[in-house]
Amino acid sequence: MSIMPALETTLGIRTILNNKIQKITMSLFTDMLFYDILRIPPEAVTGVFLTDFINLILLPTIVLIIFLNAAAHLFLSGYSKKWQTLVAVAFYLVIVTQGWYGSIAVAVKNYVILFLIFAGITFFIGRFITPKQVEGIEGMGRVVGGHIEKIKMLRQLQKELQYREGEVKRLEREIVDLRRRIDNPATPASEKDILKQEMLRKEQEKTLHVAEINKIKWEIRKLKSI
User: Fold this and answer.
1) CA distance 17 to 13
2) How many domains does the chain have?
3) Structural domain of residue 90, as residue ranges?
């Protein structure tokens, strides 16, 4: 009868040791997986395996798979699905071996909703939009960009036109005033010569402005006709 308590004690000790060994093994495996292989920063790990597995391994991997598959489909659309999958897996391994996974995992953990939305959009583009459609979208973007640039150029030309027309009006007023002073009998002859030179200079300046105005109007008509 005295053997049974000793046997139970031995079995209890063995169970405790097995549990400790399992915990140590699990801890070593977790440390190797999170820190050595995936290189996740220690401050991002909570210590609860299930939580860390979901937030730092499962969700980031899903996001990466969606993104990499979509990218492979977009850039290797002429190749078979096997090659696309192979390239996606290769890029995933590169991300892990280069130590980038940890940063990506932390970012996904903090902004998981935004990452899922972005990954979903990327997957949709890569899955349902063909290269020809991409070219069409790019072409439409170029058209819109060209239209915006055209509007900017028209505004600049119209501002320049307003400035030139304002200068012409100012010079015309000054020329009229100079002519009035020249025609005034009370103005000395020596002063009239100076006024005539000044009026000639302003008429030349006005001519230059008028030439620029005609040039600007031609450019505006040309832009509007495009």
Assistant:
1) 6
2) 2
3) 38-129
